[in-house]
Write a structure and sequence with these properties.
The protein is mainly alpha-helical. The chain has helices spanning 2-14, 16-27, 36-51, 57-84, 88-102, 105-121, 123-130, 143-190, 202-211. The protein starts with a helix and ends with a helix.
């Protein structure tokens, strides 16, 4: 009996990552599934609305960013510590779900493939499709430039969506992976060098650079 319990414990510790990877390969990023990044975005938007004004915006943005990153890590860590006292199977299932939410490899590859298929049909269709995944004007791109833009986006986002999350999972487990997704979400929302975010989001952008 003890042998089977130990086997179950090790199995539940090992299977979340491969199972999440298989689920990502099968489903990609289904729109029906509630995503933690949506919640992260709402927290960031609320904090930015309250703090991004007046003086010391660099420090206010930095403190908000650090508080959210550290808060996500410890909330996830404590959540699994509590749940783990009751059910190792439930813990493993929730870990699998969160790992799956943090991975974006299949969706990214699917989007790039759709760009190549679209540009093969017509240049205008290819420009419209690549505009879904790049942040620049695509109306004047040639067919080769459309393909190049898609591949550049794939290379850039492969780090954000696959490599970096797996690195932080290896270092700090699921809590580390979730904290990295908060880092990445902060950068994507406030890490811009425009008038509104240059000061408020500069620390978030630097944290993202270090975390990748």
């Amino acid at each position: 009996m003890f042998f089977w319990y130990i086997s179950l414990v090790y199995f539940c510790r090992l299977f979340p990552l491969p199972l999440a990877w298989l689920f990502d390969r099968w489903q990609g990023d289904p729109s029906w599934l509630p995503h933690p990044v949506v919640g992260f975005g709402k927290l960031i938007a609320w904090g930015e609305k309250c703090l991004n004004a007046g003086r010391a915006r660099v420090w206010k943005g930095g403190m908000m960013s650090v508080a959210l990153i550290v808060g996500v890590y410890f909330f996830t860590f404590l959540f699994f510590k509590v749940i783990g006292e009751y059910s190792i199977i439930l813990t493993a299932l929730i870990q699998t779900l969160l790992i799956f939410c943090c991975l974006a490899g299949t969706t990214l590859i699917r989007e790039v493939r759709m760009v190549f298929e679209a540009v093969d049909r017509s240049l205008d269709e290819g420009r419209k499709q690549v505009a879904r995944i790049v942040g620049r004007d695509t109306s004047a791109l040639s067919a080769q430039e459309v393909r190049t833009a898609a591949l550049e986006t794939l290379a850039e986002n492969l780090s954000d969506g696959v490599i970096a999350p797996l690195f932080w999972y290896a270092v700090l487990g699921v809590p580390g992976m979730m904290a990295y997704k908060m880092v990445n979400t902060l950068d994507s929302m406030i890490g811009y060098r425009n008038e509104r975010y240059r000061q408020f989001g500069c620390i978030a952008a630097r944290i993202d650079d270090v975390a990748k």
